[in-house]
Structure formats: C-alpha cells, structure tokens
Specification:
The chain is of the alpha/beta class. The chain contains nine helices and eight strands. 35% of the residues lie in helices and 11% in strands. Strands 2, 3, 4, 6, 7 and 8 form a six-stranded parallel beta sheet that branches. It has a two-stranded parallel ribbon with strand order 1-5.
Length: 274
Amino acid sequence: MTAHDGAASHTHHALRRRDVLRVAGVCVAGLAADAACSSQPSTVAAHDARSFASGDGSAAPSTPEPQPAPSHLALPPEVRHGPRDRPGVALTFHGQGTTGQVNDLLLALEHGGAHGTILAVGTWLQSEPTFGRRILDGGHELGNHTMHHLALTSMSKSAVTAEISGCADVLRRLVGTIGTWFRPSQTQFATPVIHDAAVAVGYRATLSYDVDSLDYTDPGATAITRNVLRQVQRGSIISLHAGHPGTVVAMPALLAGLRAHGLRPMTMTALMTQ
C-alpha cells in the first residue's frame, strides 16, 4: 500500500512490476463462521497457483508472468479471515460496475494510500478489457467472481465449473493468469460442489469474508463506514462492492477509521503474507 502507516511501504515493495510476489507460508487461524452474507450461506472451496506482477512506476510487461504459488502456503479449503495476531485487514470488492464507478473506486483507494483485491465478474471484465491491466498497474489484485454472477449454490457441478472456468479464461486471456483468489457468487460460503469445481479449475482455496459492509444495499457512505468499523478486527476480510457510489464516497472515512483502530487496509495476498 502507499499510506504513511507502515502498510504502505510493505504493499508497494510487494507489488513491483517486474518482480513476482513470493508468497510465504502462513496458517489461517480459526474457521468459525462469521457475519451473514448478502445471500445464502454454505461451506468450502479453492485457490489459484499463480501470483501477480504489479507496479512501482516503471514500465510493466504487457502481461504478468504467471507463477505457481508456493505449495507450502498453508490455506484451509475456505479462507474466512486472515491471521488474527497481525494488524492487517483485506479490502475485497465485487468487481462490476460502470467504467466511471470502477475507476472512481480505484482512484479513491489509491488517493487514500490503499490497494484492494478486485474479484471480477467475467462478463464485466470481458466488456471492459482494459480494466484488467488498470487494476494490476494500480497495485491492486485481480481475482475471479464467476462469469455471470449467478446463484452457485442452486447449480449443478458442471454448471458451477463452467461459471468459474469462464471467468478464469477471461482473466488468463487479458492478464496472463487466472488470479490467486476465487470468491463464489451469491453466497458467503462455498458448498462442497463449489469447492470441488474451483479445485478443478485451478484454485486452492475459496475466499469468504467475516465483515459485510452491506454497501450493495446503498445505505449511504456513513452507514457503510459504520457497518465495517463495528465488525472489523485484526485479520478481517471486508466485503465491498465496486459499482456503488456510496462505497466510493465512504472510502476516505473508512480508510481513516481502520487506521484509527490500528488496522492496516491491504490486498488479500498482502494480508496472508504480511
């Protein structure tokens, strides 16, 4: 990240354009289920074997070189939060919205000295192909949130696999990697069917969360900030959405509030390797 709070220099150094992020092994403590999702709960899932190259101001290659994630990176089948003994928290975003909305969100993060993990909906990224590089070049992460954002828990394994692999194909074509993180659509937790499909596509752990901002309900910037700050703790994974103006407006106060609580906002990979 770029904030003057310690997280900044860590993330910037971790996200150099010509260096590939080397992921150190870390065990995720405690998998007790946390806050309710914006949809139906379930239980497990999977993680990619690739990491990203990103930037420090020098020219980037046209596509990042895919690298396998170290096999010793210790992840449960589903990551619901990061390490509770460190002050990092991950900003994760449902990746979909108008060009202006998504760009405004990225700028708000960058102006606030923060980076986020953008979990792209495949159809959106396919229609806005330049955003793949824009996200990575801004020091953010790019991951998979299925092709059409359907209710995966009600679908067959073959249909779920098609949803995950469809988005993975778009990611691979646009940025050279399927991304490290996959989050299932319309459910906070992954079912065994979703988990198995994700593993088949190439992910090692499904990404859940323990803090729901409820920003998708458009409650206003103050409510979004309050929702996050009253739930957040060390190691939290915060669920947010691109494409909602209130989220952009909330970002300065949200980032300031996290730091006032002694927490460092960062990407998902940074959270797991801080």
